[in-house]
Here is the input.
Amino acid sequence: MDFALDEHLLALRAEAEEFAVGAVARYGRHNDGWLCGYSRELSRDLAARGWIGLTWPEEFGGGGRPPIERLVLAEVLITAGLPLAASWFVDRQMGPAIIAYGTGQQQRDLLPPMLAGEATWCIGMSEPDSGSDLASLQTRAVRDGDDWVITGRKIWTSFAHKADWCYLICRTDAVPGKPHLGISEIVVPMDAPGVEVSPVIDLTGDRHFNEIVFDDVRVPVGNLVGEEGNAFAQTMRQLEHERGGIDRLVSNRALYLHAREHADVSDPLVRQEIAAIESGYRIGRILVTRGVLGQAPPGFSAATKCVCTEFEQRVADFAARVLGPAVMVHDEWSAEVHYAPAYTIMGGTSDVMRNIIAERTLGLPR
Here is the structure.
């Protein structure tokens, strides 16, 4: 099997690398740039190149290009540290969700600003008492005439303080003994009365996380995406996009490259560890590529996320050993080391991922 990129993809990667050099100079460099770095100007720049919605169907304004091209671009842009968060969730998740489940009117209204790099979205999923167990969520939307009235709280909501829209996962009904039923997805404008956003500042000093309080927030009934009360499968499909992407592998690739420059490669044990990390990176990339090409079994993105995020923690451990006492002084590199435990929590903990693999991929009993 040949894992090498063909000439077209090599040319695309070279184009992305050249673009990244100039873009970092213009917009700054950020570790975990897909999650922690925000620049709407960069989003407009990406949109002008057709790099937002690259793989979306052409009839919805997308590029209609193969998913492997997005992987090649994202790998370069994230490794370079571009502040991608203004459009990352849109490109990866929200646009495909509206294309798959939205009404014609929703597609006409919501997709063009996404493709233009003008709309930032957040995802209202986790709650204070409902993290990886999505079916236990309590935020409610109650029908009142032509409106939904939404009450509840969401937490760990990345870039809610910058977002124009929230793709909200909420409960519109309660079915005793069947918590997966009664869940719906509703688009909520973040400037609606009753929406309050508060920062959640993490131990590295970053504030991309937020808590959102919905206090009797009214949105039109037409903001429902997909089937009322039966959206759990829609959300699981979204999480397939979220968990199995290249972003789960390369978040701290720049940290590794920085540490490798300072590593004592005359030490055979250090060389052995570098070899193990390089091998692990390639294994993770193969898993991501299988998912992108549609060659992975159903639910396998959970396995990809497990392998890739645990690999990222090994990268952080390696960097800490190489950099030594320097990681006790706060800077962009030590912050990356300290942030590493979050990799296996965000998007579902590794324990939950292993349960998904066992039940949905391997068919083991509960």
